[in-house]
Amino acid sequence: MLRKEYLMTPGPTPIPPQVSLTEAEPMIHHRTPAYTEEFVRLLEGLKKVLLTEKDVLVFAASGTGAMEAAVANCFSPGDRVMVAVGGKFGKRFAELGSAYGLEVIAYEYPWDERANPEVIADHLRKDPDIKGVFLTHSETSTGVVNDVRAVGEVVKESKAILIVDSISGAGALEMRTDQWGVDVLVIGSQKAFMTPPGLAAVAVSPKAWELVERSSSPRYYFDFRKARKKIMEKEPQTPFTPAISLVRAMSVAVEMILQEGLENVWERHRILAECCRAAVRALGLELFPKDLTGAYAVTAVKVPDGLDGRELVRHMNRRHGVILAGGQDQLKGKIFRIGHVGYYNFFDLVVALSALELSLKELGMDISLGAGLAAAEERYLEMTERAKN
Amino acid sequence: MLRKEYLMTPGPTPIPPQVSLTEAEPMIHHRTPAYTEEFVRLLEGLKKVLLTEKDVLVFAASGTGAMEAAVANCFSPGDRVMVAVGGKFGKRFAELGSAYGLEVIAYEYPWDERANPEVIADHLRKDPDIKGVFLTHSETSTGVVNDVRAVGEVVKESKAILIVDSISGAGALEMRTDQWGVDVLVIGSQKAFMTPPGLAAVAVSPKAWELVERSSSPRYYFDFRKARKKIMEKEPQTPFTPAISLVRAMSVAVEMILQEGLENVWERHRILAECCRAAVRALGLELFPKDLTGAYAVTAVKVPDGLDGRELVRHMNRRHGVILAGGQDQLKGKIFRIGHVGYYNFFDLVVALSALELSLKELGMDISLGAGLAAAEERYLEMTERAKN
Q1: Which ipTM did the prediction report?
Q2: Taking CB atoms and an 8 Å limit, are B370 and A377 in contact across chains?
């Protein structure tokens, strides 16, 4: 069969044609009014998507760069911070804290559950020296989505700031940066923002800026102060050469999100997630997360007994061109993940589910072909019918 | 839901990314060795795909232009020709013949059947003055595919030449131009050849060239003699400005067909057609053609009672972004057509079938969601499993 590739991973995600075409436009110089205009359009668009009035700073880096920037800018060696760890990306925040000499208190919660805001509240009450709380909004490695609003309420009461990795969240899932009390929000270009990897951004609150001014951690490329100084100028710029084509591409993608409407985008992701889950369950498979509240970015599925998860992912790629993600770290071989965050619609899901059905059958599982698709279609009609009324 | 468009019509068909990228390359001048090299590559590639050693002439025109060229070049006013008419495109050959003052004997056969080679043989025996027989290979308007080989055997015995419109055939379906005795084969860029519309080609046999030399019909732009003279030069060219970007794009597309392998391409179309039919039948719908032999380019389906065919096509487009073709001429509103000729794989079909299931349900038909998809998947596994063994 003619091979086409279907990227159904939770990042990178498919790029809309209009974004690709923008990226392919002739290079312009960045120290020009033309670039400034596009850069400012991106910053203003991002504020609307992230629902924030805060300073938004953009870096030529992938998401981890901006996570590191948050650590290096807000804290000094020896500062005590609390990191909620319930997956690979929670762990990364803890590793970054250690790398910068912070005293990291890891709040380990089960990978198939959400972090408990009460536990965080307890810690903050008992230990008023905690300077920051790190939380993963959408834990890409497990599909679990944390209750940022509830954690925000808790952290707001303390002296600590709340740093949220929303790399596979904002732009696809509800994220009210200011209203929910997020002090540093970290995003990347390559998931909900439908742009190739290489661009990251942070939104920084006044409460966080106080820490930024006091931090003694080493930083240069990711220095928030340098970046803010440059966007405050009459012709906003970045201190170092920006990723020009990505900035212009992401600006188009952000415009697409705003055109579709934030609430419509959130609802689309909810519909895709619900349809995906209906299909997975109809095929007799089990979802990995116990708590699926708001978990609309990634569907993590337990590999059924008797099947090798890595073989399933390999088979779907080689034979059908559908690229899913396997499990990471302790979940390697135990789960597979269908990403539906970004430029996806129902028929993208249909392709992934058809390839999944074919693959399960080909690998010897006793499933009923079409059962998953039927369930997805039923759920889709239900959910979109309701929307029409 | 986020709208994406799925072109499932029998032309134009989806363009592979590598073809689109070639089309977007900077313009070159055509009276240069660089252009000649690409033009010659296209001509050589086309000969391989069409299985011909004949002269291949390329025109900046859509398919009808090359159909007209065949009429104008091979016949003179008053010449008697026979046209097999079993659909809109058979009719077009008859109209072209009349426009050029030919005496057209229309052999009308039912639109849901194939032309009968015996009838053609009878006519040729009874009327040795018939100078040409026009046949549609794949009748895009009905999905029926004629037995070119059998008609070729019949015409070979006579003084007449055989002109075949293979615009939705060759490049996707088996077409052995030389072996089957086709004297003038007509193709276009926008179906099996996975290129935007605007380029057409003919392959012309020595038997046809004799008529070309004698024809007194008016022609200039489409003059086969001018075109042949130009490709015979040391640096092959076209007499008039060629569609440069389309020539280069189609050259890439032809290379893709040859890379996949002609027989693999034919088999892929057979698989897609069979899977599509299995799905349509499982949904309780009826196929339009009575004779489905070799009919692998288009699946024409009868609109079920109580449904408005035009409304179904409109609904699938508006609500699901899936673009099917309706019926043409006397079949308007009575059939709809799913095109799967060109850059299609199984998952393109899956999307079209899912949209069809959703639409039938939404328009009030009592169908079982997923039933068509299950049947398509079953057939797909059967057919590709067999291929593996």
Answers
A1: 0.90
A2: yes
